[in-house]
Amino acid sequence: MLQTVETPGATHPAPSAGRILAASFVGTAIEFFDFYIYATATALVIGPVFFPSGAPGVQQLSAFATFAIAFIARPVGAALFGHFGDRVGRKATLVASLLIMGLSTVLIGCLPTYAAVGWWAPAALCILRCGQGIGFGGEWGGAALLAVENAPPGRRAWYGIFPQLGAPVGFILANLGFLALSFGLSAESFQSWGWRLPFLGSAALVGVGLYVRLKLTETPAFRAALTQARPERVPFATVVTRHGRALLIGTCAMVAVYAVFYLSTVFALGYGTGTLGYSRSTFLLFECIAVCFMALGIVVSGAAADRLGRRPVLLSGMAVTFLLGFLMGPMLGHAAGTGTWPPVLGFLCLSLLTMGWVFGPMGAVLPELFPTRVRYTGASVTYNLAGILGASGAPYIAQELAAYGGIGFVGLYLAGAAILSFLAVLAMRETADI
């Protein structure tokens, strides 16, 4: 049965909880799929395809630099879409963010190579990466609000896990796609044209997401806010001037979440297939197995955050992330062919389980830090500023640290990120009861 949402002058049929959660989940799964296929391609082919050959590692570092561009563009997208999401509404903004992200992804699959057009190729790649970042910047906050602002009392963290589950599902779909190509194509065919197929195939997924989201209505919390006062004229300015402490704390709290994920996926994939000598298909299979533990962590932590509170769940996860930094060297440093692959897989599973544990409650925590009138902007900007600090440079920095002092130095980098986020959560108020 449909519920009804009362608004000034009209009664609007509201979609069921199942449709709301499906729309929140499906959209983020597609967005994360788009983002992850680029992340995977960065570790495997972007360097040789779009950049000239040079000193050892230069192509890979250039590819990681393009990976970082989208994270820099994401706060711009967060402020842009947050502005309209807080003034016009959640639905239209979510549709626009999905379209921009999807179009940018498909066009990346159509780009010519460096060998064909020279520096025009990486220049166009950088522009489209900006498009991906801007679209993604408006996606997560809107999806989280769609779930959380429709949640019944006492279940915001549980509803908030549905946009979070889009991350592991998108990741699995991306990796399974590349894994299938690894088995079905030769290395030459994969690098020549096969890597483009996941990018082009994203068009079909975007169509599914649009179909689901166009049937949504505005959230009850947003409608209620409109009855109380006019929207903020410039939501971003309000967030910075009146809610700067929440912005800073939320951003720092998310840094370790991003760091543990991208070190365990993008950097680990490049390190595993390069330095350690694992085949592409083997390491992609490892990653697919490990990301299932991430989904488990998200589900369990969402339930725990509603029962125990947000802070205890997050603090325990940050403590484990700190310990992971010291396990990275002993566990992830085993080369292929030595018969010691279980520690490698074990580290990936443990790190992504931990990431899911700290990522799950964030779907509720970041929106809860801000009032409804600026919540889209506040949650989105916080989430994406953390991406710059915790993710944009993580693969690049890790690559340099590994080259300089070995994998143990990368572990220390992860431990440092965990300390920063632990201190931020300590300074955060408990938001479960607001």
From TrEMBL:
Keyword Transferase annotated: no
Subcellular location: Cell membrane
InterPro entries in alphabetical order: MFS_dom (IPR020846), MFS_sugar_transport-like (IPR005828), MFS_trans_sf (IPR036259), Sugar_transporter_CS (IPR005829)
Transmembrane segments: 35-55, 61-82, 94-114, 158-181, 193-214, 246-271, 283-305, 312-332, 344-366, 378-398, 404-428
Primary localisation category: membrane
Keywords: Cell membrane, Membrane, Transmembrane, Transmembrane helix, Transport
Membrane topology note: Multi-pass membrane protein
Name of one Pfam family that matches: Sugar_tr
Record's keyword annotation contains Nucleotide-binding: no
Protein name, UniProt field: MFS transporter
Domain Major facilitator superfamily (MFS) profile as annotated: residue spans: 20-433
